[in-house]
Amino acid sequence: xxxxxxxxxxxxxxxxxxxxxxxxxxEQQRVVLAVxxxxxxxxxxxxxxxxxxxxxxxxRTAANTVAAYVLRxxxxxxxxxxxxxxxxxxxxxxxxxxxxxxxxxxxxAARRELHGGRLERGAAxxxxxxxxxxxxxxxxxxxxxTPVLEPMVAHLELLRHGAVEDHLGALLDLGxxxxxxxxxxxxxxxxxxxxxxxxxxxTALRRCDRRAEALCAYARVRRILAAELGVxxxxxxxxxxxxILAGQPPAGAGVDAYARRNRPGRAPxxxxxxxxSTPLTSTSRxxxxxxxxxx
Length: 295
Known about the structure:
This protein has 295 residues and is mainly alpha-helical. It has 11 helices and 6 strands. It has a 3-stranded antiparallel sheet, with no helix packed on it. It has a 3-stranded antiparallel sheet with strand order 4-6-5. β1 and β2 form a beta hairpin. The chain is elongated, with a radius of gyration of 23 Å. The two termini are 23 Å apart.
């Protein structure tokens, strides 16, 4: 039985074939592998790989050097996983072999659970998805930044932010507001322009009967938005603020609370979708070892 091949994109780039995770030693080889992992199952031309590695400062031997990098990568991941198609290379990897694809699929499934009113299952699914990330490190943390890879990294980070907020929102709707207050304070401080974090913080403080803190938090985000962007808080934040000022009792938890937070006409929960300019994984796969014309 062939050894199972796996790739880590979330955090430092790692490859696993057999017992342990392996680091790709050379920086430029990591760039080549990262570009191929952006959309497994799609052939990437030598010219595109050259551009990703060197940009406008390409050596005369660039194409031959890329071929040498591919040869070394094949020694690491196996010849049958990285095939040649004319003047292009294709990485063959199933969805469950790339952690970024597993992350996206798990988040999507968890959001379906939330929309279906199954809050416990949705929250658990989002927790499983976020556990795939190694701490606060970004995707491709040890891969040199290039214009080719920056959209992929930014898109995965946006997906992570949305999943974090959806997870904490689900915990709020499950009545676990006291558990998430500290996390929401920290997350709002880390990304102060993400208004949804402040809205969730105000909701948690209000349910904990910490009205004065909630008003202070609103005043703070209002100052930040005015100073940084010259705008007032959005509709959802203003609604939360008005409810605190009016002394309205905080809305209860449960499925009804989730439905109220995401009712038609309100800004939706975080659910950024993949765009054509930022492909991450391919839904169709060529079976490994199939007809490929590999060399």
